[in-house]
Amino acid sequence: PQFTPGRFARLIEKYEAGSVFLVPSMAIELLGSDSARRYATDSVRLVGSTAAALPQPVALGLTRAFPNAQV
Question: What is the mean pLDDT of residues 32-48?
Answer without folding.
Answer: 96
